[in-house]
């Protein structure tokens, strides 16, 4: 099968969990014998076309047009995606299925679907509603409308957790038989010692006597990083030799730095900004605890990565993290937005080496048996087969998705109440 994937991020341009997901899935689909093309952003000296483990990556060049705002930029991106897709099709022939990852590529995905008459599969990695715990302004409502539109246009929808399955049913009223739950995966070998960069030095991030609490990901409100900083003063009462290393970029960077100094722990918190993948692996393997205190998390692929690196995990009891972490078996869970609960669980790991060994052993087993990319790719290929064969949400369950004109009006009325 010839597959076209549309994704606004792909390694080495990594913003969040979407890039490693597309990277892992595409590579394993190639191993199954499929021909996979990925259209994504270019720039930063990256080649316009690249062969990544058999995946043909096509990168668009940034538009010369100046965008008034983020939405304008996304529109330009999608125009370029369509141009690139048409060019690729002329060279390699027609595609069997189009796979769109999130709303950022929805415009181009829909255009290609109707232009080519090919089935569209959409993976919804998160929703605007979930990211902000509701829709609080016109931008939120606009993005949510595009997410609904993408779900409406797709023949089949993939989500990464039961939590996301319920979210789409509840927020967008998507019929459940149109949605497939397929978890994210991880390559165990990508987080072993040989993947640590040759220039990595632990001393760049913490002193030899300091124990590292590590977070990596976007620095945005829904990731709950502020809860970790709020938990730190109490943790330091019992463990003075702690260093919190926070890796990533985002809108909360300055807020988190100011919060740490306001709480008197500024010297115990290091915000690294963006780090290379090899550095991330080094920090994960050297951390004493990986902490992911999210308010909202559709899946939480970084938790899997920490598990693959052999690092014990403490995560919020929310969303997909709740499904990954089996409390007391392969990690520990803390109550959402409760610094005292986070403190308690981190303290358990810092104080009990036997518990750490037990959790890490079980986590490694889960990574190998449940979250192998080979099995996830096979399940995704089955979804493609169903889409190509025309099998969609239609087992007799009444759908609340309306024809596009009527649906647009109803959605607008619904969202304005949010």
TrEMBL record:
- Tell me which domain of life the UniProt entry assigns to the organism this sequence originates from: Bacteria
Positions of the Glycosyltransferase subfamily 4-like N-terminal domain: 15-189
Keyword set for this entry? Transferase
Query: What name does the UniProt record give this protein?
Result: Glycosyltransferase family 4 protein
Please list the GO terms describing molecular function. glycosyltransferase activity
Checking InterPro entries in the record gives: Glyco_trans_1 (IPR001296), Glyco_trans_4-like_N (IPR028098), Glycosyltransferase_grp1 (IPR050194)
Residues in Glycosyl transferase family domain copies: 202-363
Stored Gene3D superfamilies: Glycogen Phosphorylase B
Among CDD domains, the record links this protein to: GT4_PimA-like (cd03801)
Extract the PANTHER family matched here: SULFOQUINOVOSYL TRANSFERASE SQD2
Question: Which positions make up the signal peptide?
Answer: none
